[in-house]
Predict the structure of Conjugal transfer protein TraA.
Amino acid sequence: MNAKHKTVFIAFSSQKGGVGKSTFTTLVASTMHYRLGYNVAVFDADFPQHSLMKMKSRDLAMVMENESLKKLAYKQFTTINKKAYPIMQARADSVLETAHEFLSSSSIPIDVVFFDLPGTVNTPGILNALAGMHHIFTPITADRVVMESTLIFTQLLQDVIMKKGETSIETINLFWNQVDGRESTPLYAIYNQLIDQLGLSLMQSQIKNSTRFRKESEVNSKAVFRSTVMPPDERLMKASQLDQFINEFLKIIEL
């Protein structure tokens, strides 16, 4: 691999489960690799779930069982002329070394490596792994427990790890996920003000919540949203405002 090629390390990370870390890793990796022309790789270090490894197996099986998706996948891979991005299992305490070994042996230059990391600071090696990221993106929801956990975690990264200087972190970015238009607007305003007072970065993009976006669970579906082998359906991207998120995401990482 060309040693001068810069590979960006990115993690969707949070100390709270169920806020969308693995989902966003998949959505953004698939959009970049299959639709935008970037080469990406993913390391699943979220022991013991390793949900991305399992997701890829389910996605491949579903494509083979669904004629509509099989046709879409065939058209996709013959058009872009490259394979599905690799998802590799690793341990949090050695994932950085494993990633660098992979990059040094890769026959193609990798633009972005995504890391799906455990959601607890008690995991051995997790803080060192986070310190090795270039950019961290943290999904948040308008829930008091989620917010308290996330803000403490983000301040730890920003005020302890980043200020020590022994880190690759360039940005830490919070963003609203599962936004329900029926929820009280003042609630978000209060949280936004708190985030600003703490000196944390909040993305302008907000991801809308809808059961329509869970298309990977529908066996007879003609479109997918979350998939490791295909990009999100463009109509669903627009409806969820994921398209706006991707644009802002690309500006932040400056590829």
Observations:
- Strands lie at 8-12, 40-44, 87-89, 112-116, 135-140, 171-179, 201-208.
- DSSP finds nine helices and seven strands in the chain.
